[in-house]
Each structure stands twice: as C-alpha cells, then as structure tokens.
Amino acid sequence: MSSSTVRAGTWRNWSGEQRCAPARIVHARSVDEVASAVHAAARDGLGVRAVGSGHSFTDAALTDDVMIDVAGMHRILHADAATGLVRVEAGITIHALSAALATLGLGMENLGDIDEQTLAGALATGTHGTGAGLGNISTQVRAMQLVTGTGEVVELDAVADPEGLLAARVSVGALGVVTAVTLQAVPAYVLHGVDTTEPVDEVLATLDERNAAARHFEAYVFPHAPLALTRTNTVVDGPAQPPSALSRWLRQGVLETGALAGLSEAGRAVPRAIPRLNRLVTRLAGTSVRTDRSDRIFASPRHVPFVEMEYALPRAAAEPALRAILAAIDRGRFAVNFPIEMRFVAGDDALLSPAHGRDTAYLAVHTYRDMEWGPYFRAVEAIADEHGGRPHWGKRHFQTADTLAPRYPGWQRFAAVRARLDPEGRFANAYVDRVLGPVAA
Length: 441
Ligand SMILES: Cc1cc2nc3c(=O)[nH]c(=O)nc-3n(C[C@H](O)[C@H](O)[C@H](O)COP(=O)(O)OP(=O)(O)OC[C@H]3O[C@@H](n4cnc5c(N)ncnc54)[C@H](O)[C@@H]3O)c2cc1C
Prior knowledge:
Vanillyl-alcohol Oxidase, Chain A, domain 3; eight-stranded antiparallel sheet; 15 helices; 30% helix
C-alpha cells in the first residue's frame, strides 16, 4: 500500500509569482509511489507535473491536476569513492548532495550559485554555474531512472538508451518523473575565491584570458557604473578555511546581503537615483577572499527576491550582447538596480541543453521583486535573438516552440524521445505546450 501523502493544496514558487492549486499534491517517497501516482492520474485523465524546490521563475512546474513532489526522495543509494560514481534519489537538494559527497571525499565538478534546488529540478532546466571548461550540471549525469507517461519505470544510460539519456538530462520535466540519478563526482577540492571590482572595459577586453586563467570566472556589470564586480575561483592545495559565523556575515558580498536589498528598495522608491546608487555600490564593494570546500564557495544565500531572465549565447557574443543590453537600458530608461551577470560554460551534447554544441556565455538580467520587468526583458530578449540565444528553461522568457526549434539542432530527436516516453502528453502543462509544443504524432 502506498504511504505517500496526497492532498489538494496550493503551491507557489520561490519568488511568489507562480502559483497553482493542484487537485492532488503527491509527496512521494519511492519510485513505486511515483509510478502509482502516474497510473492514478492516467486512470482519472489528469496531467502530471513533477516539482522540485520551486526555484524556477517560469510556470514550468505549474499544474491544476497532479503535482508530484519528490523532495522526500533524498537518499544516497550507492557511492563508489574510487570511481566517483554516485547513485542518488532525484529529490535530494544540491545542498544535501554536496554535504553527503564531502563525507565521501568527493565533490561536484561545478555548481550554480545556490544549493537549494533539487537535483532533478536543477537538471530539468539545464542549471549551470560558471567555468569555461566545464559543462552545466547535467553533463555530470551518467544514468537516470524515470517514470514514463504510462507509469513504466525505465533506466536511461549510455548502453540501455543513449538517446533517451541525451534527452532526459535536460528535459523541462516533459519526459517523465526522474526518480534516481547516477552522477560522476570528482575528488573533493578546495577553492580560493576572490571577489573584487575592476573597470568594466578592462574586464570585457580580457574575457578570454580570464577564462583561460581561472577554473571559474564570472562578472557582474551594474548599469551606469564604470566598475564591474568580478568573481574568480581557483583550485588550491591547502586546507579549507571555513570562516566563523561572524566573519562569514561580515564578508558577505554585495550580492548576498542587505546591501543589495537596501539598494533595491532605494531604487524602487526613487528610480532616478538608480545610476548613482549603482555607482556607489560598486565603489563600496571592495575585495573579499575566501578559501573553502568547493560547494561552499559556489553557493551563497540569496535573500533578495528578484525576477530573472537568462540567455545562453555563443561565447563570442558575450561582450557585444552585454554592451547592447547596457545601451538598451539607457535608451529605454529602464530602472535596473541589479547587475547583469555574465557566466561561461563549455558546450555539451544534451539535446535541449542551452549550451548544446557550443561554448557558451550566459547573460542574466534581474529586476527586484514587484518592479516592472516586461519591457526590459523584452529588450534583452531581442538582443539575445540576434545572437541565436537560447533561454534558461527555468527563467523568464517569451519564446515559443516555433522560435526555439530552429535554435536546437537536436530538437526533433528530443521530440522523438518524448513521443516514445510520454506518448499521451501526460507531463504537458501550459509551459511545456508553449515551449515544446504538442507531442509528435
Ligand atoms: C535564487 C536563485 C538562484 C538561482 N541560481 C541559478 C544558477 O546559479 N544557475 C542556474 O542555471 N539556475 C539558477 N537558478 C534557477 C534554478 O536552478 C532552476 O530554475 C532549477 O530548475 C530549480 O530547481 P528546483 O528544484 O527548484 O525545480 P523546480 O523549479 O521546482 O522545477 C523546475 C523544473 O523541473 C521539473 N522537475 C522537478 N522535479 C522533477 C523530477 N523529479 N522529474 C522530472 N522533472 C522534474 C519541473 O517540472 C520543472 O519543469 C536559480 C534560481 C533562484 C530562485
């Protein structure tokens, strides 16, 4: 008998902008419970969406039918410290995964800037960090277990179903409910992280050199400010030097703290002050240095609520696209008190990975909670379109299946896997309908 908790209820995402009231929310604790929930939904003619930690800005996880929450599936199933292969339940958060790997002397090759997402949720949208030579998180996947649209449990790996694995690594939740994942971890490592400010022009003129010199480089460019914040993380041999709680608080940067919240509130109250505020914050940011376990350097708390759009562009487009966005902000007089974030990842082969087949620069734009984002994001999207940009699947964008299909060489191959694993479109919702279209006949 199933022990999953099932109830009707309401659900909202991290930013509070996406809400739904599913007929059933199933808190599954095992693959059998997931399969039962999918069977029951099929019997009742209902759609199904899996949900993770709700950290997507899009309506990707929304449903009025059946929502399957796999957060209760968070166990390490198998770990081989010698090979680094680790099998985990898919609802584990990146935070819990990182902590468990650390006890095994392992770590993830690269991570994004928060660790609250579930592994399955992070994979589904192509979540990434920065590091020009490193792929997004889905490149660390070696196998996945999935409950398909017919309630069947399948294992996708390079031998049993290589095409299925290439599709499922970044699936927007449209192929089934991912219940377990085998990851390739790496030996644990310590990162030395330096956050500082540097002239924007100097940073933009030396992106290739910076990417070649550091394992992880990223930049935050505030509109109207001549200084950019740069973050450079390199691997070091020495021991981790975790800061005390007090020193961690004192060392938190502009991006993590009340400084950004204060700036955002002040900018919302007096939008014409934003250029001055942006210059002030970059002048005051200073330099901070940390040496710690890799996952603790990658992830920081994000207390300031915001809305985000992020585009994956060919690497060479990073500078012209960023400059075009800055010019569009001036032209449109957009009130933007968040920096434009610039990150780098290596190309990969997952069919719907925004970095598919090309070394990529990601440009992300944000607005503070409740501030108007539509005109700004549309202007940014127009610039991304000129460069063949591909949107982050979990962040705001206005694309449709028609505009996206030509940007993905593997689009038809993904559609064929989807037709095989979810022939009736059980996992479709409004977002999937918009960005992927109907299941192929
Ligand atoms: C503060 C903040 C910081 C962020 N930082 C980064 C970053 O550094 N890099 C980056 O790339 N992104 C970043 N993101 C975006 C975030 O990583 C993605 O939106 C990610 O998908 C969220 O994971 P989640 O567990 O919250 O999934 P959800 O948002 O709950 O779901 C995302 C998608 O995954 C699907 N899904 C969830 N579980 C399953 C499952 N078991 N099987 C199949 N499909 C499933 C859902 O249906 C949905 O389509 C950030 C978001 C926030 C709010």
